[in-house]
Design a protein that fits this description.
This protein is mainly beta. The protein has one domain. Helix content is 9%, strand content 27%. It is built from three helices and 15 strands. It has helices at 8-14, 175-188, 192-195; strands at residues 23-27, 41-42, 47-49, 56-57, 79-80, 82-88, 103-113, 124-132, 137-139, 157-158, 162-166, 203-205, 228-234, 248-253, 263-266. The strands form four sheets. A six-stranded antiparallel sheet has the order 11-1-12-13-14-15, with no helix packed on it. The chain has a five-stranded antiparallel sheet with strand order 8-7-6-2-10, with no helix packed on it. The two termini are 33 Å apart. The structure holds zinc ion (2 copies).
Length: 267
Amino acid sequence: MTATDLSATDLVAAVPGLAPYLRPATLLHPDAAPPHPGASRIGGPAEWPAGEPWPHCTARHPDDDHGYPRRAPEETPATSFVPLALIHAEDAPHLPWPDGTDLLQVLWCPNDHDDLQGERYYYGPAVELHWQHAAALAPATPPPPLRSDEEYLPRPCALRPEQVLDLPDRDELPEELARAVAEFAERQGIEYERDHGRADGWKLGGWPSWHVTDLIPVDCGRCGERMTHLLTVESGDGPDLSVGRHGELHVFVCPVDVAHPVGLDVQ
Ligand SMILES: [Zn+2]
Ligand SMILES: [Zn+2]
């Protein structure tokens, strides 16, 4: 076996202390091709439970203020969310599916926001998770957003979901274990984070990257619990988005209740 063949399971065999950190993940591999109806996808077409209103973003958008006096929140016009990802449970069975749900829709407001998370710095789109039942959805025509940033409008993509096991960045490991991993990587002549351990790209579950800021824990704004990584949105390629100056956006979910507001981090 050459160093480049090392999988997350091989790393765990070599450094057994990593075993509790193995997490299932789904790599999405988006292709800029029309998604099959009924298949997981990035971008539209939209589906929504019949008779339920399509969600709107009522948050403040800092760009609204350019050249204008600051408006009161109740005067800020609501703008439609747009579909970012639609995921069937069979493609990511490891997600925390609430009872009776088999489909996750990730919607986002395609504008920058700067006051979604209190003290914790974040500048980017607002994100909502909707855990739904596929059979209850019907084709929908959401109103176009009143305002949008071009680089936050995804090009529709088909997905090739791949189940993998993922390991965290060294930042997430206790010091002694991080040292053991670094020593093993050096002996093998590999780079743990860049080539092995944590998988890059559009991903559900698994672990986020901390390559820009180092680890800043994401705690639930509602209950304070440490949140877990749900989705990595990557700039470029098929969906042709740009988040965080051509970086990546991480969406976190509360392990106590998936209905608590998501955590967001840009790298
Ligand atoms: Zn918004
Ligand atoms: Zn919570």
